[in-house]
Automatic annotation (TrEMBL):
UniProt-listed PANTHER family: ALIPHATIC SULFONATES IMPORT ATP-BINDING PROTEIN SSUB (PTHR42788:SF13), TAURINE IMPORT ATP-BINDING PROTEIN-RELATED (PTHR42788)
Alphabetized CDD domains for the sequence: ABC_NrtD_SsuB_transporters
The protein's name: ABC transporter ATP-binding protein
GO MF annotation terms: ATP binding; ATP hydrolysis activity
Xref: Pfam families: ABC_tran (PF00005)
Amino acid sequence: MATTFAEAAQSVEHAARLEHVSKSFAGPGGQQLVLDDISLDVAPGEFVTLLGASGCGKSTLLNLVAGLDRPSAGSITTDGRPALMFQEHALFPWLTAGKNIELALKLRGVPKGERRERAEELLSLVRLGGAYGKRVHELSGGMRQRVAMARALAQESNLLLMDEPFAALDAITRDVLHDELTRIWQETGVSVLFVTHNVREAVRLAQRVVLLSSRPGRVAREWTVDIPQPRRIEDAPVAELSLEITEVLRGEIRRHGRH
């Protein structure tokens, strides 16, 4: 799988490109502008975190990139169909861990005789070897998110969209999964667009942090994260950059009157 993603990444200019994207929804007072003139590129193999205050349109933007909704203006192009991972694992409880992954493989057209082996490979990739036959209720929250990650990777998309996938986990489990996601991203070469409201998580993971202003969401600022991996939440360079980003985020929130 690492070769598949890496070779595909070399053949395209952008994993995702958003050009002047805006999105409005109908509201009591008429059309409500949620996203305004967003232009953003995600390079092949790049890890980008999308950061902003609650309600700024981060999840809306991710849904647009995923193709679950259409922009009101502008255009979005992606390198194939993205894979999407949510805060909730969304696993089918009546299926085993392995069968949840096999379902994604089936939908992708993988022959039946190859699915179990492929599912077990993906479980091993997320360090859940031997969990193929376990039911969802037998898995911890962190294990469920690992299975959800394996299922997303089963789609063999070049772009993985992640909507606050670790927000509901305890700090230690979240930190372990940060390590695992970093490892998987490096091994596969997949591009990642990761939504979070946690500044330190954004800096811990990303090569680039993109900050959205409060509604309507606009690209307020970007930071390139030149801190070598592996990183820790508590590392001084991570804490220093997080403080800088937090101050800018606070300014955006104050400027838009949201407290």
